Amino acid sequence: MSSSPSRPGDGPYTARTPRVVAARKLQRRAERDETGRFLAEGPQAVREALRARAVRELFATVEALSRYEDLATAAGDRVSVVTEEGLAALAETVRPQGLIAVCDHVDVPVPDALARTPRLVAVLAEIRDPGNAGTVLRTADAAGAGAVVFAGDAVDPYNGKCVRASAGSLFHVDVVRSPDAAIPALRASGLRILAATGYGDIDLDDLADEGGLAAPTAWLFGSEAHGLPDELIEAADARVRVPLHGRAESLNLAAAAAVCLYASARAHRKTRAH
Amino acid sequence: MSSSPSRPGDGPYTARTPRVVAARKLQRRAERDETGRFLAEGPQAVREALRARAVRELFATVEALSRYEDLATAAGDRVSVVTEEGLAALAETVRPQGLIAVCDHVDVPVPDALARTPRLVAVLAEIRDPGNAGTVLRTADAAGAGAVVFAGDAVDPYNGKCVRASAGSLFHVDVVRSPDAAIPALRASGLRILAATGYGDIDLDDLADEGGLAAPTAWLFGSEAHGLPDELIEAADARVRVPLHGRAESLNLAAAAAVCLYASARAHRKTRAH
């Protein structure tokens, strides 16, 4: 059952076809912000985007349509066949595997995310590196977080590098874009606010031993270069450091976030089991 | 007390000075392998390299010599003053902050690393991405690992990206380069061999609850794209998966390694405390 769409009297789109030219502009943040759309590359992201009902148009090469027949079928009349050269014009990676989707933004307002009472939330404050942000998003999803807040001047979650690093998780958790870390709202919904900082006064292991991770938790993570802003460190309920057992001066952001989020996941699992 | 070396009748080195030209060749693996040397960029790496007595020659701009006087003093007559343009020719990053050191390889043979009876070891099997390898090296150091084994066709630990991602940890832990994962030697020195794999039959949390992380441990990590080779999965004492609580299909390598290594660090700490 192939859904390869026929377009009578019209070959595959090229790099100069107006719809391809328009979609390509979504590589720029200004265009993404203005249109509320973004690009997702490759079969994994496209599959998750289709499940999340976020796909507006799926650009696919003839080869990709036959290789990923399930995705072509799911996209139905939203498929636009493109030449290899047309796809390359849209792609930010060397190997998009023949598929690029134009998607609608998927973020939700803070109250919507909190209405689902997540027990674990990650707040990315002023994180500028899109690869780091996407990796933390992926890790937060894996650790069972219900929401990830991109706060302040954090990177655009729809930046191509962030979308790719998230490996589909952008479509799994509630992504929130907020001008600030929304601490009052997080706290009002019963989340304990923990600031992850190398200068924290409590060690993550000690906190876990004290039962300090059992409550629903929102973790605040800052940029690797500058850490968390002072006002967020002060606003948190506790300032937590990942213990450094060897001679490394610090962990990189994604590793620190993985250790913190999984410590929470483990504490929550024990709480449920008892 | 400035140690800015004077070279009578000789200005700062330029990109065409033979020693700069020779050092630049160390950006290539073949040259690194042949000479047993590599480049370390920036003040943090240079500081750690000096502490590890690995520095042969320190190329520094006049500005960097005055900004990092302690490093210039420590390097003494190994300092070679270069022009900004000479430094740029040596640098792989945009901002090497005026300092690049030619270092001797620091890796040690397997028996030397094991003679120090490390309680935590990370084995990187067939990991090709230098940024990933360097990040895991940094995380292993932070978690208190005594040795990191680059096994098989793993990336060159002296690749510039790996050196930078390790953030100095290349000079902190015993780095071992081995044609294979050295499992018999690791096991003979009392290390329990755990393979980190998404298809593991035991969950990391369950293993921790059972006390399965209390023993000295060597973790095997494979590439993100291909995972661990089958023979290593089979050779391990246990196959361990990081639990996935959300909808992510997997964790990225650096995040998975952080969670595994810190679970071991936490178990070892509890063991020592009792």
TrEMBL record, chains A, B:
<dbReference type="GO" id="GO:0032259">
    <property type="term" value="P:methylation"/>
</dbReference>
<dbReference type="InterPro" id="IPR051259">
    <property type="entry name" value="rRNA_Methyltransferase"/>
</dbReference>
<keyword id="KW-0489">Methyltransferase</keyword>
<dbReference type="InterPro" id="IPR013123">
    <property type="entry name" value="SpoU_subst-bd"/>
</dbReference>
<dbReference type="Pfam" id="PF22435">
    <property type="entry name" value="MRM3-like_sub_bind"/>
</dbReference>
<keyword id="KW-0808">Transferase</keyword>
<dbReference type="InterPro" id="IPR029028">
    <property type="entry name" value="Alpha/beta_knot_MTases"/>
</dbReference>
<feature type="domain" description="RNA 2-O ribose methyltransferase substrate binding">
    <location>
        <begin position="39"/>
        <end position="109"/>
    </location>
</feature>
<dbReference type="Pfam" id="PF00588">
    <property type="entry name" value="SpoU_methylase"/>
</dbReference>
<protein>
    <submittedName>
        <fullName>RNA methyltransferase</fullName>
    </submittedName>
</protein>
<comment type="similarity">
    <text>Belongs to the class IV-like SAM-binding methyltransferase superfamily. RNA methyltransferase TrmH family.</text>
</comment>
<dbReference type="InterPro" id="IPR001537">
    <property type="entry name" value="SpoU_MeTrfase"/>
</dbReference>
<dbReference type="InterPro" id="IPR029026">
    <property type="entry name" value="tRNA_m1G_MTases_N"/>
</dbReference>
<dbReference type="GO" id="GO:0008168">
    <property type="term" value="F:methyltransferase activity"/>
</dbReference>
<dbReference type="InterPro" id="IPR029064">
    <property type="entry name" value="Ribosomal_eL30-like_sf"/>
</dbReference>
<dbReference type="InterPro" id="IPR053888">
    <property type="entry name" value="MRM3-like_sub_bind"/>
</dbReference>
